[in-house]
Amino acid sequence: MDARYAGVARAELSEEAARSHSLAGLVGAEIAGWARGDAGISRHFGVPVSELIRPRLAVTGGLLLRSVLLGWALALCGALMASLARRTSFLWQVPATVLLAVPTAAMATVCLISGHGGPVLVMALLLAARDFKFLERALRTAWLEPHLLHGRAQGIGTRRLLVAHVVPALVPQLFALAGLSLVTALSALVPVEVIFNVPGLGELAWNAALNRDLPVLLAITVIMALAVTVSGMASSRSQEWKSA
Amino acid sequence: MRLKVPVLAVLIALVLAACAIVLAPGTSYALQDRDLPLAGSSVHHLAGTDALGRDRLTRVAAALLLSMAGSIAAAALTTAAAAGVGAMAAFAGEGVGWAAMLVCDVFLALPWLFLLMMVRSALPLNTSPGNSAEITFFVLAALGWPACARAVYRGALRLKSADWMLQARAGGLKRMQVIRHLLPNMLPLLVPQFLISVPAFVIAEANLGALGLGVGPPLPSWGGMLLELDNSAMLLQTRWVYFPVALLVAVLLLLEAVAVED
Description:
The structure holds two protein chains of two kinds.
Chain A: H1 7-21, H2 23-36, H3 49-84, H4 90-100, H5 104-114, H6 119-143, H7 146-153, H8 158-195, H9 201-210, H10 214-243
Helix pairs in contact in A: 3-4, 3-6, 3-8, 3-10, 4-6, 5-6, 5-8, 6-8, 8-9, 8-10, 9-10
Chain B: H1 4-23, H2 56-91, H3 94-109, H4 112-121, H5 129-160, H6 163-170, H7 175-210, H8 222-226, H9 232-237, H10 243-259
């Protein structure tokens, strides 16, 4: 170690290096932190991790909720239009394909530079593009069901067929898609929050990664994993409830 | 299938062009021209230069090659791991299958980007750029196999109950002999998984790089070049900073056109 460092600094750096290299020590400290209920102490900020996470949960939760709702609305509208007017379905399919090929970070940066759109729009567009593909395929298959073809031939209105037959038949797939939407939204969370400077969990995780603050990163990863697991369980329970 | 051949031809042409640019004598992605930072298009620098005076076209070509090579290697690794785990889970008995799928589910519940950030932040500070590239793609491969393994498992279960498989086992074929016949039959499952993984890894590397957690400088990467867009002064000076993003989107569209189901 550089001899120009002060004695105290050298001692602290040695202690930190020893702590980082000891996996057992790291895991032990994390378990103790979770047992205390504060999820450990942040190495970078020197405060309990729970204090850092709590105010950001609402920010990230709000962003996720608004993005998922907007994304779903866009995807459903697009999928309905594309499945009903098949000749013009490419008008929806082309933008969806292009959006899927644009990295989230690039989309967010371009929105920021142009001054149009914010974090909710970027995440909603990404979700809409991904969900559109599933929904459009599901709806296209659903409209070809014999009873629906018969209903249309009999002159029953599209809205009535949608409400009475198409949507109820798609409910299991919609529940499964809801779980997937959360996973997609979480994967876009970090770049979007970092680029738009949103003080949420994604930005905290990015700061923690840059500052090698493993307790914070671990806590956020656990929270995200829990969110995915709970949403997956809720989606499968809803499917069971629907089919019961 | 009709669309795939010209798309593949365009992709191969792009890779060959990138090779020609990178291997041209007197060029290097790290070569700096201190007198020409942020220059526009010229005879010497067709796509201009970056803030350090490095030729943008050479850097984009090198980033394309690095990203393609890394993503293809990572996708091959992921597909091989998924084939191994999926086939083992399907053929090694119910207990092993259940345990393997449980591991897959646990991995699938973990948000990969956060895990990736955790692994990258745990690396030593003095990791070389080459090692950072290797580690980034290796970690992508290590985290990408579970979804693939689930698909392979379902396909392998169908193969297990196929008529030819039942006849082979009833006829007394040994396990290794069965596996030898199994692998060619699993190819229709594995090839789409491989093709889907390649663009997914290219996007993941670009997103990680844009967060400063991907391939380390001075090695060029898509993500590193996306970082240029953060510099508003640079955006005002030259429009060529958008060139890497445009090419990246084009490459991803081509890769997805190859991966799309017939």
